[in-house]
Write a structure and sequence with these properties.
Elements lengths: L1 E5 L2 E5 L4 E5 L3 H13 L3 E5 L2 H10 L4 E5 L7 H11 L4 E6 L5 H10 L2 E4 L4 H16 L1
Parallel strand pairs: 3-4, 3-5, 5-6, 6-7
Antiparallel strand pairs: 1-2
Amino acid sequence: MNTRQHNEVKEVYIDPIRVLVVDDEPIIRDLLKAMLISMKAKVDVATNGVEAQRKILAGSYQLVITDINMPEMDGIALLDWLRKKKPDIETMVMTGIDISDEMMEAIGKSSLECFVKPPEPMIIRNAVLHCQKKYCM
């Protein structure tokens, strides 16, 4: 976080968080990327859990937003891997299918949020703000 005094008004600059969006649907990846960029986040994308693992090991992320159903490695397997390898990374889970309230609640206990696509901007904004407070202040 950087601060600068200017004409008796203190400006505060919060470093952007790094987010990885993982989904096999290009329209959802693009939608989330646009939302997150408008919130001043730095965003990378992956099409499945295997690609996400490579990017996570090579980069530094504060938030991973992943779909549940994807080819090669699904979102649940990615979450399990993240809990073991990078437990400090916050996660959000999304799905395009109808899942039970119990499943949503179980996933939500290990993630910031579990939501049905398409994502609502307020849900994404709250996660970004949470991560900014946790990592950038």
